[in-house]
Structure formats: structure tokens, C-alpha cells
Amino acid sequence: MEPIETLQQEAQAKIQSAASLSELNELRVLYLGKKGPVQELMKGMKDLPKEEKPIFGQKVNQLKQLLSSMIEDKKVELEKKEMEAKIENEKIDITLPGRSPVLGNAHPLNLVKQELEDLFIGLGYQVIEGNDIVDDLYCFERANIPKDHPARDMQDSLYIDQNTLLGTHTTAIQMMVLEKSAPNLPIKVVCPGKVYRRDDDDATHSHQFMQMEGLVIGEKVTLSDLKGTLEFMAKKLFGQDRQIRFRPSYFPFTEPSVEVDVTCHICNGKGCPTCKGTGWIEILGAGEVHPNVLKMAGYDPEKCSGFAFGVGIERVAMLKYGIDDIRHFYTNDKRFSETFKRFD
């Protein structure tokens, strides 16, 4: 029995000290394989006396079962340690700050457009957008601009054919809204969009720019309602200390018509080079909707009235952000666009 005990002590020591699954597998092959010492012991039984063979065989089988059990237990232990080591190595520290993606900058025209839309939605207006290509009927005739009006001249408008053109103002959207809504009241809409003119580009002019026009139709809507609305808009856009004033003007689709000025944001109305010493800066045109416009859309001007106004989004953005050249909006200069960082 001495060889069995010696082999058992040797194998137990090596199995207990195994540091990896590969090392443990080598020990399994070494001791329990077909050419291993345990198998050699079984082969040696033939040389023993007959009466000793059963006891010897029993002891060898017990050794084989013991080593097999020890190897399986050690295997479970080593697998657990390897899994724990793997988890530790692959652990993610969730307390580390995340990597922020690089975001594009909001374009100043989109900033102003969004600000205006939010402002008027808060006042109960609907935002209605239209197409860049419009019918002559809605762009001019329904806006009380007759066939011989200078605005129809090819030097101002970009016609596609005799009846369609690139919209010269977003009034066309308003005229379609009026026709579609008639005779229901009230109407409160703002209409943002791109407009096109036959114009030479310079620091303050562009052949394509953005407008937002507003239209309100209801009972007993007056110029004082218009002034209150535009004063609220000016204070929201340029600051609570801004004031506005009306100057008489002429537009075919409004009567009376006014040009609207806001106190200069640079000198606060005292006079400076920006406002040419007047203390005021023109920002938009407006007026009460012309009775002819109401009649053509199916409304009775004796029973309802309204006002309309048109804001140049580039004009507002230039004043609001101190931009001195309208071409900056379209030249895709990264240094310019990065001025308007996102904060969300």
C-alpha cells in the first residue's frame, strides 16, 4: 500500500498548488491518464497474491475517485477566480464623466426664427409655412397688388412662367390662409419662409432672405392692438427697455400702413453712428389689413378688421447679434458659425 499513499500525497500537493486551469488539466492527464501512475498501479495487480488483489484494487479505485474529486473541486475554484479576475479587469467606472459628442452650432437665423415662433405661439398664434414657389394670384393679386404695380416688374421678381414665381414675400401664405379660413374668425398666424428678389448682393441686401409675416383678423382689431403686439415683440427680442414708434408709410395690402422703428440698442435712443444719430432703427413694416384684401378673401370689412406685419429675420439677427454684413449668414465660414455655440 505504500506506493498508493506516496502517490496520493504527491498528487494532492500538486493539485492544491495548481495556479491555472491549464496546469490543472496537465495534472489530470498526468495522474489519471491511460499512461498515468494510477493506471500503472492497476496494471501491477497481476503480480500480487490472489488474496491481496481485492484490497489493492479497492484502494487504487479510492485513490482514483479522490483525485478526480479533488481535480473537479479545484477546477470550480480556479474558474471562479478567473471569472472574478476577468470582471475586475473589464470593470467600467460609472462615476467617470461621459464623452460629450461634438455638436453643430445653431445658425443665428434659425435662432431668431425659433425665438419668434416661440414668442407668437405663446400669444396664441399658429405657425403656418408654405412653398418657395407660389402663384401670382396669391403673391400679388390677392394682396391688392394690381398688374401694373412696380413690384411685378421682372427686375424685382423671379418668374418661372407667367403664373408662378419664387415668392417675393411670405404674404402669399397669408392670402392662402385667409381664403381657406373664410369666413371663420378669429385668425392669428405667423408665416415664416424664404423669399427671393432680383437684387444685387452687398452688405445689407441679398437675392434670397427670410421673412416672418404675422396676420390677425377678428372683430374690432385696431392699430393699438398692432402696436401692443409689436412692442411686446421688440422688448422680447432686444430688451425690456426698448421702445417702438410708428411712421406713416405705404403698402398695397395694408391701409393705413406704417414703418416700425425700435430705439437703438447701442445708444439707447441718444444717437450714434449705428442709428445715424436718430436714436431709432427701422425693423419692419406693418399696418391694418386693406379692405380690398378682406373682400377678395371672402370677408366683410364692415364686420371684421385686422393687422399684418412683416419681419426680416436677417435684419433682426444683424441687430440682435451685432452682425455687420448679411453675407456672413450664407458664406459658411466656420469661424462665424462657431460664434453661436449650443448650450443644451
UniProtKB/TrEMBL annotation:
Its EC number is 6.1.1.20. Binds 2 magnesium ions per tetramer. GO terms for biological process: phenylalanyl-tRNA aminoacylation. One of its GO terms (cellular component) is cytoplasm. Tetramer of two alpha and two beta subunits. Residues 184-319 form the Aminoacyl-transfer RNA synthetases class-II family profile domain. PANTHER family: PHENYLALANINE--TRNA LIGASE, MITOCHONDRIAL, PHENYLALANYL-TRNA SYNTHETASE. It is found in: Cytoplasm. Keywords: Aminoacyl-tRNA synthetase, ATP-binding, Coiled coil, Cytoplasm, Ligase, Magnesium, Metal-binding, Nucleotide-binding, Protein biosynthesis. It is an enzyme of class 6 (ligase). It catalyses: tRNA(Phe) + L-phenylalanine + ATP = L-phenylalanyl-tRNA(Phe) + AMP + diphosphate + H(+). This is Phenylalanine--tRNA ligase alpha subunit. SUPFAM superfamilies: Class II aaRS and biotin synthetases, tRNA-binding arm. Residues 64-93 form a coiled coil.
